[in-house]
Amino acid sequence: MMEQYKGAAFGELSPHLFAVADASYRQMMNEGISQSILVSGESGAGKTESTKMLMRYLAYIGGRAAAEGRTVEQQVLESNPVLEAFGNAKTVRNNNSSRFGKFVEIQFDRAGRISGAAIRTYLLERSRVCQVSNPERNYHCFYMLCAAPPEDVERYKLGNPRMFHYLNQSNCYELDGVDDSKDYITTRRAMDVVGISPEEQDAIFRVVAAILHLGNIEFSKGKEVDSSQPKDEKSFFHLRTAAELFMCDAKALEDSLCKRVIVTRDEMITKSLDPDSATLCRDALAKIVYSRLFDWLVNKINSSIGQDPESKFLIGVLDIYGFESFKTNRCLTASSNSASI
Ligand SMILES: Nc1ncnc2c1ncn2[C@@H]1O[C@H](COP(=O)(O)OP(=O)(O)OP(=O)(O)O)[C@@H](O)[C@H]1O
Question: Where is each Myosin motor domain found (predicted)?
Answer without folding.
Answer: 1-341
